[in-house]
Design a protein that fits this description.
The protein is an all-alpha fold. The chain contains 9 helices and no strands. The protein has one domain (3-242). Mean pLDDT is 85; it is low at 102-106 and 248-252. Pfam families: MnhB.
């Protein structure tokens, strides 16, 4: 197809779509106008019904908890695809064990970078765990906290180098962690079915509002999501860092 024909087709499609676009723009609410009665209902009833103070957690792990389970499997599938593509391209059945990595270019790091990494990495790890465990109380949760914990593992690589990174990050452990996170979420949802309830229906005491044990099954689901996200994102980081290995260069 020539350039002229493509341009004609583009402008013809634009003319057909332009009235629909303009109609959609005219139907938008005014700037600042509140049009979310669903959110108002959740804010008004969420704390009393679920004993949580983070309404986003109430939506993600209770009101639309089945959707969140679907997101878990999307992440699991995406990480599996990355692993299969990268390991297959390298001709590996799995990421190499640390003991098998004998040759690699040594990255130069200053003492300041290494020292800063030793302070920041554990601090970031603790903060990530805090975000996961307090997901039903404050903004955050398993998704956000899991990414923060994965970032703390990467900070070890930036501060200490690849050898130290591979001593604490093992592909098998990450696979198990991610799979267990998804499995826990699935099983917790199945338990109420054996008592005549609905999938993901709460069967635990709701606890006192404001405590870490409040929210019934929501904290458990938060932790399960955190496990899956930590395993998934650390696995992706591991696979991409494996792509940078220099097996023919002496580690001197």
């Amino acid at each position: 197809m020539s350039r002229a024909v493509r341009l004609i087709a583009f402008f013809a499609a634009a003319l057909v779509c332009l009235p629909l676009i303009l109609a959609g723009l005219r139907g938008l609410p005014a700037f600042g106008q509140h049009t979310n009665p669903y959110g108002d209902a959740v804010n008004a009833q969420g704390e009393a019904l679920r004993h949580v103070t983070n309404m986003v957690a109430a939506v993600n792990f209770d009101i639309r908890g089945i959707d969140t389970l679907g997101e878990e499997f999307i992440l699991f599938t995406a990480v599996t695809g990355v692993v299969m593509l990268l390991r297959g391209a390298r001709g590996e059945a799995r990421s190499a064990d640390p003991s098998e990595i004998l040759h690699r270019r040594r990255e130069g790091r200053s003492e300041a970078v290494t020292g800063l990494g030793r302070w920041v990495a554990p601090t970031t790890l603790v903060f990530g765990l805090y975000v996961i465990l307090h997901g039903q109380l404050t903004p955050g949760g398993g998704f956000q906290g899991g990414v923060i914990v994965a970032a703390s593992a990467l900070l070890v690589y930036f501060g200490e180098g690849y050898a130290a990174w591979r001593l604490i990050v093992h592909s098998t452990a990450l696979d198990v962690l991610e799979a267990c996170g998804v499995a826990i979420y699935l099983v917790v949802g199945l338990v109420p079915l054996f008592t005549g309830g609905s999938y993901l229906e709460n069967v635990l005491p709701l606890g006192e509002v404001g405590s870490m044990l409040s929210g019934g099954i929501i904290p458990i689901l938060n932790v399960a999501v955190g496990m899956a996200v930590i395993g998934g994102f650390c696995t992706i980081a591991l696979e991409f860092l494996e792509e940078t290995r220099q097996p023919k260069e002496d580690d001197e």
